[in-house]
Amino acid sequence: RAFNAGTFRVVRFTGKQTFYRAAGWDSDGKLASPYGSWWAHQTVLQQIGRKIENFRGWLPDDYLNAAWPAQYRGATALCEDCNDMSEMCQLVLPEGAVIEGLVGEAAPQPQTSDLDRSDPKTPMFQGGYEQVFFRRGTINPLWVYTVDPWPRRSRPGPL
Fold first, then answer.
1. Under DSSP, is residue 110 helix (H, G, I), strand (E, B) or coil?
2. How far apart are the C-alpha atoms of 38 and 136, rounded to whole Å?
3. ω into residue 51 within 30 of 0, thus cis?
4. Fewer Cβ neighbours under 10 Å: the N or C end of the chain?
5. pTM for this one?
6. CA distances from 102 to 14, 16, 54 (A)
7. Where are the beta strands (DSSP E) in the chain?
8. Which residues pair with 89 in a beta bridge?
9. C-alpha–C-alpha distance, residues 125 and 69, integer Å
10. What is the pLDDT of residues 105-159, one digit of tens each?
11. Which of helix, strand or coil describes residue 20?
């Protein structure tokens, strides 16, 4: 139910490519793994960036910076109780490296995972942007870095 029906397919990615993953705390106080399975290709952040740039000069930079994580959460349909997005990770697939993933459009998800998705009054994140699922154990930990993509600063280096 994470993908919109009929939109997912197996894709073989060859480096150099970059993916992003929210890896913050969940509502039970557990930190999501920086090496987890769900990622967004760099093109998703580029799409979000283009939308936000349309408002540069019209809205204060503080508003535009706050729009980044909100747009990411909505685009990838990431439930609020699953991850507070306080940490973001970047997977840099090196030149020549290959990894397979299941790719498809993020299906709508309720604002929190305990809400009834069939109730028309349930607040939903619409999703619709592409997400990538990598099998557990296929991500080389040396490819993963912590980043802060919203204000465009990073802390380079392996975790």
1. strand
2. 10
3. no
4. N
5. 0.87
6. 14, 18, 31
7. 9-14, 17-22, 38-41, 88-93, 98-105, 109-110, 124-125, 130-133, 144-148, 153-158
8. 21, 146
9. 13
10. 999 999 999 999 999 999 999 999 999 999 999 999 999 999 976 654 333 444 4
11. strand
Residue with tokens 């399975």: 37
Alpha carbons 131 and 39: distance in angstroms, whole number: 6
45 backbone φψ class: left, alpha, beta (φ>0; ψ -120 to 50):
alpha
Place of tokens 């507070």: 84
Q: b/e per residue, 10-30, with b = 16+ CB within 10 A?
A: eeebeeebbbbbbbeeeeeee
